[in-house]
Amino acid sequence: MPRRRRSAGRRSRGPLAxxxxxxxxxxxxxxxxxxxxxxxxHAGLNNVSDAANANCASPAAYVVPxxxxxxxxxxxxxxxxxxxxxxxxATGTAAPTTAATATIxxxxxSSASGAPCPxxxxxxxxxxxxxxxxxxxxxNVNCDIxxxxxxxxxxxxxxxxxxxxxxxxxxxxxxxxxTNATALGAFVQATILNTRTGQLYVYDPLVITQGTTxxxxxxxxxxxxxxxxxxxxxxxxxxxxxxxxxxxxxxxxDCVNGQGGSVFGQVSFCNGxxxxxxxxxxxxxxxxxxxxxxxxxKIVASGGKLGTxxxxxxxxxxxxxxxxxxxxxxxxYLLNPATGQTAxxxxxxxxxxxxxxxxxNGSDNILIDAFLDPTLGCTPxxxxxxxxxxxxxxxxxxxxxxxxxxxxxxxxxxxxNDEMTLDGQGNTDLAxxxxxxxxxGQPPVSAANNKSSSPAMYCQNMVNIQTPFLAANQALLxxxxxxxxxxxxxxxxxxxxxxxxxxxxxxxxxxxxTDPVTVTLDGNGAAVAATFNTTVQKVTNTTGTGTAAPxxSPSASTSAPAGAQHRCRxxxxxxxxxxx
Length: 580
Prior knowledge:
Elements: E1 2-3, E2 27-30, E3 35-38, E4 91-94, E5 143-147, H1 154-158, E6 161-164, H2 171-174, H3 181-184, E7 186-194, E8 200-203, E9 207-209, E10 227-235, E11 240-244, H4 249-252, E12 255-256, E13 258-259, E14 262-263, E15 268-270, H5 272-284, E16 332-336, E17 341-344, H6 347-352, E18 357-360, H7 364-376, E19 383-385, E20 391-393, H8 396-405, H9 430-439, H10 450-453, H11 455-472, H12 474-477, H13 491-505, E21 517-521, E22 527-533
Parallel strand pairs: 1-10, 5-11, 6-9
Antiparallel strand pairs: 2-3, 4-22, 5-6, 7-8, 7-10, 10-15, 12-15, 13-14, 16-17, 16-18, 19-20, 21-22
């Protein structure tokens, strides 16, 4: 039987923040095992102070790479210019080499007046998909997701979640449809633990648009007699609020949206705290086996004592984190563009649904599992997928278990100035941060872990660890495919631009630090080269929170095209600017 704990009910929605319009571009996808087709645009930040932007399309599509032939059987967006880094003698230069992969091109969109839309943070604008909902409310960035009754049960896992509009809006009125998943799609992922044997499993519950039916009925998972499950929910828009299909559904699943009347934003959880407490207890007993991440001779050691040598990264490594780590999921769905129906992305469904596209949730987890690990010569932690004939699959919870087991000396934990853990007024919220951490298996804020992950130290470590990692491994990373073509033209330039955006959105300059990255942009606003200032920096102001939005261009050492400066006006407006 499932284990769960009592929960709070539905949380109220946060303020309107980010704007997105649909885009869909089919491409090849590699999610640890097998090649499938995928598309997503992680609804990047727009500077919406100009009303003309209200009719502009969202940034470039999120792409997950096809499985390389040699890997058979294996398993966000600073608008800088090209000026020199402040300390030129301590920099490395990223070659503008594009990985030899499929090219994805997005057609520039135009505003209602016919003029080209300004390029937004995250890359080139793109034309709406033919499958988009014509009656979409352009300014809407928030949706509701209807959670089925008894969501932790086998029946609940196999009952589709329903995506719909907020505040009584229909899917058509709000744009909250899975045909518009690139901008406002929702994704659900469950990780299940057999509490007798310690065996872990993955299952991806389906999300459908309210008022539709699945293209193929979901597979009902066969669950262990004794188990505990966690459900992670991801979103490609701004705020996604859980709504129970029944009065007790959220309580039955121990589902949480946020704290103190403020939702987390893109993510929410069901029973995460209980799952991780049980998993860690069974791991101490020797029942749960989490493998070592291992090392790779492809990785160039960097950062001196601060770095992790040639050890493969995890989602808690400062080598790869961004402004809002530990967010969103690796689940993908098949979409029938003609009918707007979705189905679980299984081998059988992929073979039977001719012409289906695959939708994905831009996430830190897909970034590490499908991009960084293959490029660096590393392997993600997988478990049998109960919805896909026990094929090995990744999940957000598996990544967190791996990160907890393979903890680096300097560990990145969700900081209090993470955009998703701020309160409704944009201030730090200790209770909300601790709730978020608990749902992803991280310890609460303490004096001990504040040495690495307080707002100031998170910024300092991100600068001093990730910058030399990217600089030292730039030749290798430049061979990897970009997750978001509108952010960078290969994995290196994407990571460089993402680091610079994260520096800006966490307001790291408030702690006396300097943006360590300078990017060169192409005509569409994508990074094509980068330089790295690897000089070790030290915070000079530890009393601030880093939550005040910048009032000018993010870095004096960079220049940005007109209309492209990266600013965050309100709470939840800066989540995942790079698309990951």
